[in-house]
Amino acid sequence: MTLAMTPELPVVTVTVGDLVAALGGELAGGGAAAAQTLIDRIGPLESATPSTIGFVSNPRYGAQLAASDAGCVIVAPAMVDAAVARGATIVTPDPYLYYARLTQWWALRLRPAQPGRIHASAVIDALAQVDATATVGPLVVIEAGARVGPGAVIGAHCFIGSCAQVGESSRLAAHVTVGERCRIGARAVIHSGVVIGADGFGFAPTPGRWEKIEQLGAVRIGDDVEIGANTCIDRGALDDTVIDNGVKLDNLIQIGHNVHIGEHSALAGCVGVAGSTTIGRHCTVGGAGMILGHLELADHVHISAASVVMRSIRKPGQYSGVFPIDENAAWEKNAATLRQLHSLRDRLRAVERQLADPERALAPNASEDNTTSSPTGDETA
């Protein structure tokens, strides 16, 4: 393997044999020279060149595989015959996982570790602790009592508040704000514009105005967490907001105060989670999903994109609450029908009673609805 550095962009060149030695898998196809095939790019099949490595994880893409000029492809055993027919192939049980690990291997060579250094323009309080192996970029501010762990990278213009902590090998891109007393675990990746530890949305109503409730908690983030650009995580009102190990948050997400997100859950872009909600482990929320406050989602709950969660979900599974898109005229008709569902329900119940007991249905007051409503709006017969 060679690593050539240019002023514009570092370039990685590696043989297929070296990749197999580093990442595993079985090399097939391409004859004796397959192991010496040079690769300088990971790319999609349709735009691949003879020095590109690509992957196929779904048999539906067999036509693209056959037509691709990729120098090597990563496939599952079920597709090995089709892949070998066109050239060098790495066979692995899970091509998508192999691809993920390949990108990590590649990124380490594109972004080699930097020796610990502190830029001359950084402002670091004398009472802060910055490990000698950490890297602190230009115009960073680190306040008193803050701690930055070994191998951490703090990008330009970041702010680390008093008594905050950034764990070992965590990487903060430019313009990240970590509020006072907030803690980030090891190996986190925090993208630009993230704000950790802003005040939660807490106000007490009083005649004619709102009285601010001071937010006295903090934010605790576990190990191996990734947080996308411009996401905001509010500090707790009293206890801390908690993001457990392995959680992945996309861009433009709002996490309210005292939310607790369980291990290895993943939330897509523009999700909003209102305060004091608990999301279990291994959950997913699709893009623009909304979760109201003070709810609980069990482990392994999966919310479809653009759904609004208005009640606790205590059973694992896939949940959706999306009104399908349609032509506007058709959508307006359907919306008008939805507004009549309550009266249609009452009429249907009357018909059912008449069919079940015609004599009773014709008796005085038989048409009255004897259901009662609970204070929460749930109806019981």
Fold and architecture overview:
The chain is of the alpha/beta class. It folds into 3 domains: 2-110, 3-Layer(aba) Sandwich (Udp-n-acetylmuramoylalanyl-d-glutamate--2,6- Diaminopimelate Ligase, Chain: A, domain 1), CATH 3.40.1390; 117-319, Hexapeptide repeat proteins (UDP N-Acetylglucosamine Acyltransferase, domain 1), CATH 2.160.10; 328-361. The chain contains 7 helices and 42 strands. The relative contact order is 0.05. Mean pLDDT is 92; it is low at 366-381.
Attribute tags:
Udp-n-acetylmuramoylalanyl-d-glutamate--2,6- Diaminopimelate Ligase, Chain: A, domain 1; 3 domains; alpha/beta; eleven-stranded parallel sheet; 7 helices; UDP N-Acetylglucosamine Acyltransferase, domain 1; ten-stranded parallel sheet; disordered C terminus; 18% helix; 381 residues
